[in-house]
Write a sequence for this structure.
């Protein structure tokens, strides 16, 4: 049995090498595209889950409190002047909403107390701490909306 002469088939080996490089580069490109798609879908799923939870909570509160107009039935959080990551804002919004659940079912004439629930509170996300500053608190009908600005706390 003889060993084939590789000098005659050098072009074939180059062609095979180019095909393999193309396959590897194509796989890398597809991974990058899939990663971006997966991140987008994760954000959309998080927002959808948050909306479902809010609607379930609102439904539960409406059933519990009935048709009362003098109590807070729903709370919501809005962010102002922030350029933070969406996932971080979702975490902060969930934490603040959990703090504001105390106000559900309470009279609407105590906005100064509801503001103090969140004002100046610090939340930790990863290795950073954020202090919440309430810019505005609005009670319209039975819905309380708190407008907040998260500020990163710089520790010495």
């Amino acid at each position: 049995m003889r060993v084939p002469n590789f000098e005659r088939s050098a072009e074939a080996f180059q062609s095979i090498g180019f095909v393999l490089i193309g396959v590897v580069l194509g796989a890398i490109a597809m991974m990058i595209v899939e990663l971006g798609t997966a991140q987008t879908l994760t954000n959309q799923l998080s927002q959808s889950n948050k909306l479902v939870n809010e609607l379930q909570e609102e439904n539960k509160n409406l059933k519990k409190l009935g048709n009362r107009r003098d109590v807070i039935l729903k709370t919501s959080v809005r962010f102002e002047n922030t350029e933070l990551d969406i996932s971080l804002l979702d975490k902060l919004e969930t934490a603040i909403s959990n703090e504001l659940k105390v106000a559900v079912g309470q009279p609407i004439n105590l906005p100064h107390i509801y503001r103090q629930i969140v004002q100046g509170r610090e939340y930790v996300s990863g290795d950073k701490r954020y202090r919440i500053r309430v810019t505005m608190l609005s009670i319209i009908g039975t819905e309380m909306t708190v407008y907040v600005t998260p500020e990163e706390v710089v520790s010495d």
